[in-house]
Amino acid sequence: MQFYPRLFSRLTPYRKLHLLAAGSMLLIAATIAAFPLLIQQLLDSIFITRDHTALQSTTLIVIGLFAIHAAAVYFKLSSIGKINSVLADDLRMGVIDKLLALPVNRCPQLFKNNQINQLIAHIHQVSPNVIRHFAQSLQDCLIIFGLIVCTLYLNQEFTILLLMIAPLLALICRLAAYPGQ
Hints:
By secondary structure, the protein is mainly alpha-helical. 88% of the residues lie in helices and 0% in strands. The protein has helices at residues 3-9, 15-48, 52-101, 107-112, 115-154, 156-177. The protein is elongated and about 85 Å long. It starts with a helix and ends with a helix.
C-alpha cells in the first residue's frame, strides 16, 4: 500500500496536467448530470406544451452538450496520457540513475537474470494503469454525485429513498463479493 503515495509523489511537478484532467472530469460529470434535465425539458416541450421553439432550442442545447462532453473527454484522455508517459519516463530514469550508482560487480547479476528488463516492463505496465484507474474512479464519483444532485432536483422523495437504500446495496455487494466474511 505504500506504493501509491510514492507513485503520486512523483506526479507533483505536473499539477497543470492534473488540473486539466480534473477540470475535464468535472465538466464530463456536469454534462452527464445535465442530460436528464434536458431530456425532461425536451419531452415536456414535445408532449405537454407542444412548443416548437422550446423543442428546437432544447435540441440545440443537447447537441452543444454533446460537443462539450466530447471536448472534455478529449482533454481528459490527452492529459492523462501525457501524465502516464512522463511518469513512466521519470520512473525509468530513476531506475537508470540507481543502476548507475550500483557497484560494478553487482550489474552482471542483474543483466544475467533479466531483472532490469522485468523491472522496466513492470514500470511500463503498472504506472499507466494506476493513473488511469484512479482517474476513472474519480470521474465515476463525480458522475454519481452529479446524478444524485440531478435526481434531488427532479424528485426529492426518490433521492432520499435512493440514499437510504445505497448503504444496504453496498453491504449486499460486499457480502456477495466476499461470502466467507
